Amino acid sequence: MNKYRHYYSFNRVLSLILDFTLIFFAFKISNLFRYGNMEFDYQYSVFFVLFALVWWIVSGFSNFLFRIDGIFSCDKKVANLINGFILHAFLLASCIVIFNLEQLSRLLLLYTYLSTALLIGVSRLLMDQISGYFTKSDMAHTRYVIVGAGPAATALHQTLNANDNLGTKFMGFFDDNADELSPYYSQVRGELAELKEYCLQNSIDEIYYTLPLTDKEQVDDLSEFADDNFVYFRIVPDFSAIVERDMNLYFYHNVPMLSIRKEPLEIASNRVVKRIFDVAFSLTVTFLIFPWLLPLIALAIRLESKGPIFFKQLRPGKKNRLFVCYKFRTMFVNNQTELQATKDDPRITKVGRFLRKTNLDELPQFFNVLLGDMSVVGPRPNLVSQLDHYSKVISKYKMRHFVTPGITGYAQVSGYRGETKELRLMEKRVEYDVRYMENWSFMMDMKIIFLTVWNMIKGEKNAY
Q1: What family does the database annotate (predicted)?
Q2: Residue 242: its pLDDT value, please?
Q3: Does residue 180 contact residue 187 with C-beta atoms inside 8 Å?
Q4: How far is CA 286 from the centre of its chain?
């Protein structure tokens, strides 16, 4: 894909310029609807600058938010755009408070956001349609063939065809032993002996080789032909006989390595981004929320029952290392701290029940985040007794401890929190934790945080 990097960069810049233009136009139209003119006052001008800058920041963090090619499906593009607007709204709301823009008309804000979302959304759809038309037309700037017509070749064809990469066009298979019963047989253009002539006559740009790597002479011959005729030669190894799941290819210096499990947080840059956000978000909560909320909760806990304000307990963290986890005390002082809370648990105080229902009991864990023992988002740290038990009966349980545990997690916002008296409930929780590990992105963390706040507002039936 390095070949197209300049093209994707151009698309990104073009989309960014178009978005800024549409944002400016949306601001003008919104001001016209609200006040009958297009002239911005001072506060609205400041708001425009913040709006555009935050959108630029979001575009940097969002996963391919500005791509208009076919690398992602339409559903994925729409989801990315929605996630981008959710993150944008979250950051923009903070900016409004910080820069004291509360006097802006709420109706004007509504007009502005709706018109911006509409214009950018429609522009993405139009650009996507134009991209699709260009891809399927004879103007495609990259034509490719696949050597082989077996399972590896058809799987590659399905993947490339489903993604509809911008400007690429599939021209056919070449195989000496093509299966006539295969649904793809009609797309076989000939045997390998006919490949070179076909490439020259049809201006082929790329050759994908999917046959077993047993014929070194054949591979060298095709590679030399490709070099001599300015054709890109790609070898696509078939590992289906070894593993039946997605793999990732890494390079340690010049040594290729395969990882059977996706591990986004094993990439140093991803860990740095996540850690910077953890510290920034935790400091924001600590300085903006703790000064007024912590005394109120502490007073309520102390008035109802005797005992400490905070509850401290050892929990297993990354790679099973134990750390002291902090929470607000939600139970009467007892000696059964390793026993999981149940519905109508007599140990839970009235104040504690409210704190659990709203997740406010977890607030002190932002100190754990600052200490580096936890992250804002990640698999929830279970009890030590649960680690000992479930690691013996759930095969992937220990995998969740490859990453730093979180205050909130993918399993929790997906409905799997609270009591796990049935094994299947913990298995589902582990399934979502592993899915989070393998599909982590910054936008995924933002989505989980948003859903956590939403669940705090509406309350959760499994929180007790």
Answers
A1: Belongs to the bacterial sugar transferase family.
A2: 59
A3: no
A4: 26
Nearest CA to 138 among 202, 77, 90?
A: 202
Contact 145, 198 (CB under 8 A): yes
Element housing 290 (H / E): helix 290-304
Q: Which of 201, 193, 200 is nearest to 221 (CA)?
A: 193
Q: Which H helix or E strand runs over 325?
A: strand 322-328
Burial of 72 (0-12, 13-18, 19+ CB in 10 A): middle
Alpha helices in 229-289, H assignment, sequence order: 268-288
Distances (CA, A) of 18 to 38, 123, 127, 142: 20, 9, 11, 26
Element containing residue 289 per DSSP (H, E): none
Angle at Cα 80 formed by Cα 277 and Cα 445, nearest 5°? 25
First-last CA distance in the chain: 50
Rg of the chain over Cα atoms, rounded to whole angstroms, equals 28
Chain centroid, CA 88 distance in Å: 15
Q: What is the DSSP string of 18-73?
A: HHHHHHHHHHHHHHHHHHSS----HHHHHHHHHHHHHHHHHHHHSTTTT--STTS-
Q: Where in the chain is the domain with CATH 3.40.50.720?
A: 142-242
pLDDT digits (tens, 9 = 90+) for 293-311: 999 999 999 998 888 999 9
Residue 150 pairs in a beta bridge with none
Half-sphere exposure of residue 333: CA atoms within 13 angstroms, side-chain side: 8
Pick from 68, 67, 23: nearest CA to 48: 23
Distance CA 441, CA 402 (A): 16
What confidence score (pLDDT) does residue 399 get? 84
Helix (H, G, I), strand (E, B) or coil at 374: coil
pLDDT of amino acid 2: 42
* pLDDT tens sequence across 130-187: 766 655 555 556 789 999 998 889 888 887 776 545 567 889 999 999 988 888 999 9
Q: For the domain made up of 142-242, give the CATH fold.
A: Rossmann fold (3.40.50)
**Model's pTM, two decimal places?**
0.56
Q: How far apart are CA 69 and CA 166, in angstroms?
A: 5
Residues 70/140, Cβ–Cβ less than 8 Å: no
One-letter amino acid of 312? K
Contact 396, 441 (CB under 8 A): no
